[in-house]
Amino acid sequence: MRVLFVEDDDLIGCGVEAGLRQAGFTVDWARDGHEAGLALTTTTYALVVLDLGLPRVSGMDLLKRLRDAGKDVPVLVLTARGTVLDRVGGLEAGADDYLGKPFDLTELIARCRALLRRAQGRSVEPIRYQDLTVNPAAQTVDVGDTRVSLTSREWAVLMQLLTHQGIPQSRSSLEESLYGWQQEIESNTIEVHVSNLRKKLGARLIRTVRNIGYVVEKA
């Protein structure tokens, strides 16, 4: 899942970016509201983690612009402003959740995952598809009674396809879910991940759509 992280504090930013990547997210880190606004116009994100106290364009203004444009990407607001009025203001401006500074990184990651599940119309219930059982909260996959180990990028490709059943996903959209701004994309990386998923989960799970990409048929 590709996340836009907006934070101007380098110390906080480095820690959160590293933690999100370790948790399996693809992260683009914007350091001010203007940079974040440009990113949101050119890239599709599964989630935005947004600090309010930003230079150039404030986090609150960015959030209002995002919602005024009709974009419903889930937004987790981070801020040192801890009053009830601040929390209410952020939520009324369109935030989906609110976490005050200082915060625990494990809680931040848990809240991100919860927002993603909610946005995809899921609770903590596992996804069942044919003989697969996929647990988004624990990030586990079982084929029948057998637990299968996936890399973070294999997991990201699988979730992109399972949450868009019946809708072919282009190679470029799958690449966007895997790679951030500073990461080099290898020419055959999607093919490799799809091949590995077929070996681990079954050759018939993912169908190639000629000249488009890949699809998991609707259950």
TrEMBL record:
4-aspartylphosphate modifications at: D51
Domain of life: Bacteria
CDD domains hit by this protein: REC_OmpR_PmrA-like, trans_reg_C
Molecular function in Gene Ontology: phosphorelay response regulator activity; transcription cis-regulatory region binding
Keyword match Methyltransferase: no
One term under GO cellular component: protein-DNA complex
DNA-binding region location: 124-218
Residues of the OmpR/PhoB-type domain: 124-218
Keywords from the named record: Cytoplasm, DNA-binding, Phosphoprotein, Transcription, Transcription regulation, Two-component regulatory system
Record domain Response regulatory: where: 2-116
Phosphoprotein found in the keyword field: yes
Subcellular location: Cytoplasm
UniProt record, GO biological process: regulation of DNA-templated transcription
Alphabetized PANTHER family for the sequence: REGULATOR OF RPOS, TRANSCRIPTIONAL REGULATORY PROTEIN QSEB
Protein name: Regulator
Taxon lineage: Bacteria, Pseudomonadati, Pseudomonadota, Betaproteobacteria, Burkholderiales
